[in-house]
User: Fold this.
Amino acid sequence: MWAAMARVNGKLVVVSNRGPYRTETRGGRRRLVRAAGGLVAALDPVLRERGGLWVSAQETDHPQVVQLESDQLPYDLASVKLRRRVQEDFYEGISNAVLWPLLHSMPPTVRVGTAPWESYRIANTAFAEATLSDAPRGARFWIQDYHLMLMPALIRAQRKKARVGWFCHVPWPGPDLFGALPASRELLEGLLGADLLGFHTEGYCRNFLDCVSQLTDYQVDVAAKTVKANGHTVRMLTAPIGVPFADIQQTASDPEVLERSKKIQQAVGGRQIVLGVDRLDYTKGIPERLLAFEHLLSSDRSAANRYVLVQIMVPSRQAVQAYADLKDEIDRMVGDINGRFSVTGRLPVHYYYRNLPKNELYAHYVAADVALITPLRDGMNLVAHEYCAAKTDGTGALVLSQLAGAASYLEGALIVNPHDIEGTAKTLERALEMPVAEQKERMQASRTEVHKLDVHRWADRFLRELEETRR
Assistant:
């Protein structure tokens, strides 16, 4: 049985696997703690402004929907509780081990043919039933990401006239890769239950249309970016996500943040700071970044006296062996670099394995001379946006992987191939030696684009397009 949810404040219902907050009890008091990740960073400010309901997953041996205490929030939280085995198979067995790597053009970490697809179906059905149980008539459903690709069609089956949108926060590969999934047709059918499908870049959108064209019999209009499926027209929208520009700029200008940024600069002895900020993941290119920085140090023995890499790595999926192995590799690489190039009182790499509070993170953005962002594949990469938004004085340089969606938009960035270690090192050196006038010209170009791609504008555009759909 599904317990009743609170009624939606307004008519926007956001659904995702990961929720925006978890409850934590300290000293007998319950409080909400915001989760890490780009999706939460993007959508939390949207619902704070609009109100509504956010539905997300929580594992348990007793399925039900529970209403979390959300007095501190202007929107409601509801948690779909899945049986523990279903949650593990749905999240780890399919979403993380198959869909995440494949959508990032990397090999799945399990045998695809024996992966637990039935749990993925059960979980998507549970999400749909729970969401529909109390969502009012007239609600607009905005489903998020690859965990819930079957859900649009499940919503459509119960509410023929509902407006249903789905947004892809990761890359979308071509049909040669996506078609390798035994469930590829089923997943496409699920998505085509929506009215509007959103992607970060034109390239991802074209790849999706190619998948539909080659893997189904539906009519695809590439120019119009539409698919005619099951009696209705599904529209594609290229809608690059952003960050809350004004909020970041305000926080980065706070006197306490500015003072903290000065202390960070003093703590590294006045050296130029190269900053990396990532969740622990094999798509983020952290080993490649360390190799590039090591190459820079090796090419100039005095570089360790001038430059320091500050790497902030947010813990993620620590129980998964592949992630534990990756952390061990990064730990070893940091130790090797510091062992080879450190001098008394000066470590070339400062390494933090934790999630920093917002003000502390922004102080690092302000303090950094260069942000080095080198994912091997990334849907967008909001760290690049946050860094530019925080550089209110217009200085600083962004070195960005060509394989991040953000590279299609941030014209002021220096673009690199993260697999080209020597090339990345040379570009990093160029960024560190860049004249202030060029820094400001490039940063202004990037900040202008980040402002245009503000998360509220992104949400407004997607929801406006969804509102204008006709069934």
Remarks:
- The two ends are 32 Å apart (CA to CA).
- The domain at 245-452 is CATH 3.40.50.2000 (Rossmann fold).
- The chain has 16 helices and 18 strands.
